[in-house]
Amino acid sequence: xxxxxxxxxxxxxxxxxxxxxxGAILAHRLAGQEAAHRPYGGVVPEIAARAHVEALGxxxxxxxxxxxxxxxxxxxxxxxxxxxxxxxxxxxxxxxKALALGAGxxxxxxxxxxGHALSPRLADPTLRFPYLLLLVSGGHCQLLxxxxxxxxxxxxxxxxxxxxxxxxKTAKMLGLGFPGGPAVERAAALGDxxxxxxxxxxxxxxxxxxxxxxLKAAVLRARxxxxxxxxxxxxxxxQAVVDCLIDRTRRALKKxxxxxxxxxxxGVAANNNVRETLQALAAQHDxxxxxxxxxxxxxxxxxxxxxxxxxxxxxxxxxxxxxxxxRWPL
Length: 330
Ligand code: KG4
Ligand code: ZN
Fold this sequence. Notes:
Layout: E1 3-8, E2 13-20, E3 25-32, H1 34-37, H2 45-67, E4 76-82, H3 86-103, E5 107-111, H4 112-123, E6 131-136, E7 141-148, E8 151-156, H5 163-173, H6 180-188, H7 213-225, H8 230-255, E9 262-265, H9 272-284, E10 289-290, H10 294-297, H11 302-313
Parallel strand pairs: 1-4, 4-5, 6-9, 9-10
Antiparallel strand pairs: 1-2, 2-3, 6-7, 7-8
Helix pairs in contact: 2-3, 4-11, 5-6, 5-7, 5-8, 6-8, 7-8, 8-9
């Protein structure tokens, strides 16, 4: 059994965690930056990078203390090396390199998306490859067949915005604040999902791709018409996103052979309507449905430590001059 220290700093969450190769989460610490970004209605890269610099060291110390461990007990250090906001990615990766060099431990450079993609196996040790993964976050909206560690077939992606981005922009348009997803979900609970006629871009098309730009424009028109309440727009928007996600996932299920489960990960998986509808879709296909707990769906370091553990077990470590990558498709 090995012990992995994971570091995450690719967006607006600074995090450190200690996870074992058999899936025990010994510690996970996280510092959000919502208050710092709220006045701007979105993540400001420079502010994010500075906040990571301040937060990361103390979080690592706290995680080690929580687990009753020191760096000497750690077998490898895993840090997010991209994709993400480059300033933040560099903070975490350089910190990981320094710790690896100082403590004489191997470094594992983790793709943040691989962290999300493998996190369901941390949540459910019985989950076997291959599984169909809907990865829905603020920066990504993809359907992947996860065939093994480092072995991913991308079946679909968004041709414009990510689903989480659509939630965030809708929240901004409706004056619901930041971060957008949870705010839209709360408002949607008070509205009528059938009140506003909104488009379902690409629904029914042959390839399982996503598109949310047209939906966003329609939300703006609905708001400016003055005909609808914020709650009704939020509810109708959420329903439209769910309808798109489900139709596209159903299409992908038709295209893949031998998937053992339907899995959802990424921040939008925190949305109850999304989870419940996907669960029903999995049941229709006689597939188990796996969704990590909410805290493991949004950005965190346990998923990075776990992806690091899976890579380390496969002998995949990285040299200390490995580059930070703002763009890095899986
Ligand atoms: O995975 P994540 O924490 O960060 C990225 O890697 O992007 O995902 C954050 C995204 C944001 O766009 C946020 O609005 C969305 O996930 N999100 C939600 C909910 N909670 C977070 N979207 C819809 N409903 C939610 N409850
Ligand atoms: Zn993420």
